Amino acid sequence: MIELHGVCKSYRRKKAADDINFTLPEGSGIVGVIGANGSGKSTLLKLIAGLARPDKGSIRFNGDKVTRRTSSEIAYLPEMESYYSFYTVKEMIDFYASQFPDFNREKAADMIAFMNIEEKSKIKSLSKGNRGRVKIMLALSRDASVVLMDEPLSGLDPMVKESIVKGLISYIDVEKQTVLLTTHELGEVEPLLDQVMLMKEGKVLAWEYTEDIRLKHGLSTVEWMKSHYEIKEAAYE
Amino acid sequence: MAASFDASKPIYKQLASQMYWRILREEWKPGEKLPSVRDTAVEFGVNPNTVSKTYSEMERDGVVETKRGQGTFVTENKEVLFKLRESLKQEQISQFTKEMKAMGFSAEDILSGVEHYLKGEDHD
Known about the structure:
The structure holds two protein chains of two kinds. By secondary structure, chain A is α/β, with parallel strands linked by helices. Chain A has a single domain (about 1-235), classed as P-loop containing nucleotide triphosphate hydrolases (Rossmann fold), CATH 3.40.50. Chain A has eight helices and ten strands. Chain A has a six-stranded mixed β-sheet with strand order 6-7-8-3-9-10, sandwiched between helices. In chain A, strands 2-1-4-5 form a four-stranded antiparallel β-sheet, with helices on one face. In chain A, a hairpin with a 2-residue loop joins strand 4 and strand 5 (about 65). Chain B has two domains: about 10-75, Winged helix-like DNA-binding domain superfamily/Winged helix DNA-binding domain (Arc Repressor Mutant, subunit A, Orthogonal Bundle), CATH 1.10.10.10; about 80-125. In chain B, strand 1 (about 65) and strand 2 (about 70-75) form a beta hairpin. The longest helix of chain B is centred in the last third of the chain and has 25 residues, at about 80-100. Chain B starts with 10 loop residues before the first helix and ends with a helix. The interface of A and B includes residues 166, 169, 192 and 220 of A.
């Protein structure tokens, strides 16, 4: 369970998190964090991962304050590439297995076969698409109850996106895991999401089950997002 | 991501329609086991929770049966399958008719149009 109470975080003068409050129980499924660039999506993930400290407020994971230590139970996939390019895929897996007790080698081997990646290849020799796949494989091979993914699909071509989305579906346990993924390309992942959280200027502007958006409002998630932006803008006038 | 979905209808309902379509075409025969939730999720590119919901919806309709620990199976109840066929037929007819009427066609126009079309198709 993740609990945020009055969480604030600023970089220079810019508010990246502005009084965020929410509770996400265990097994919340796949939650999409959406919003424009600079709305605070990445900061939110970093705060939960314990990689950034809030200026104010508290963040708890299963009752404990989030620190570097809890980060061993939370799988975090950063937006940028963060592995040693001179390693082979196999060495990278060994490294992850040594760092994280929840790393599941069987799952990793499965995913590598599923994604058609050679264990012997050096990371630097892989195509951009395959590096994207390796990144996802490393994050999802951990049996972590919380998985945080920052823009897992950004900059990849449609074929690669499709295979990554299929990988996500196959290897996420929606009943036990909570996955928070940020995206600004809603299209590809929309059918994957259980819930969407809309952010703007460091605040959580709206939050709903994707099914309710369709059922109650008769909107696509994109339309729903736009309608919230418009309400906010109208209020400023 | 084989399937594309209408933006405003719940995905689980749209998925149920697609599954019913397969059942009627006997791609899945009475008594046959449906693919697992995860396999279906991967095939259609949707969240496994959505597929579970689709399967429960189909179970409520009586079209499939879940056997504990074994999976989900197409019903062998002929009456249920007949009703499903009829209700999908009605659904298609009603949608088609609504659209035709909205375009200003009368009942006669529609009927003669359909008749003409069917005859033409026979000659192909």
